[in-house]
Write a structure and sequence with these properties.
It is extended, with a radius of gyration of 22 Å. By secondary structure, it is of the alpha+beta class. Strand 1 and strand 2 form a beta hairpin.
Length: about 120
């Protein structure tokens, strides 16, 4: 017998469900977040290393963003996450960049291509 659940893990709406109940069932749960204790920092440098189970993502401020730095880049934040969360992060970042580029135009990451020569 086939499983009535869809790949997302939710049951298909029953014909007896009202449209309001169907809409509520299709919307993702809203998760409340308290960011009052969050530390905010700026980074223009990121390094990713990992193990078979997790990723280590270091963020820092490179005082010499062009060329090869002549001093070590100070890392101020390190995020350690599992690969499942990293994949979810990858997906949401990709969607966010695509939406931004759709509105404001292509983001060129190669600095040499962004330089306007007169």
């Amino acid at each position: 017998m086939d499983n009535p659940e869809t790949s997302s893990g939710t049951s298909p709406p029953r014909p007896s469900d009202s449209p309001t109940e169907q809409q509520a069932a299709n919307q993702p749960a809203q998760i409340e977040v308290d960011a009052s204790e969050a530390v905010t920092c700026y980074a223009n440098f990121c390094r990713v290393t990992g193990t078979p189970e997790e990723l280590l993502i270091d963020f820092g401020l490179n005082p010499q963003p062009f060329g090869t730095p002549n001093r070590p880049i100070p890392v101020s934040q390190r995020i350690v996450t599992n690969l499942y969360t990293a994949k979810r992060l990858l997906h949401v970042l990709q969607l966010t960049v695509e939406r931004h580029e759709g509105t404001f135009g292509m983001l060129e990451t190669d600095v040499q291509k962004r330089i306007r020569r007169t």
